[in-house]
Fold this protein.
Amino acid sequence: MATAQKQPSTTAGPAEPAARKAWVPKSPVDVVLEQIGKQEKRVATLQRELDQEKSLLVKLAKAKAALEA
């Protein structure tokens, strides 16, 4: 008396194969230029964070000087 339950197959291929772009190989030059761009963005973000931290440090140093006076 076993009843067979059918489950929808979710592992069978993509639902819309036309929705994906075709893979286009990149040249080594394009790869390096992309890495340079990503690194420049990362450095810019870190520089902004560093500037914020320096500003906070200056404020805290002024507060410390006022407390010690």
Remarks:
- The two ends are 89 Å apart (CA to CA).
- The mean pLDDT is 86.
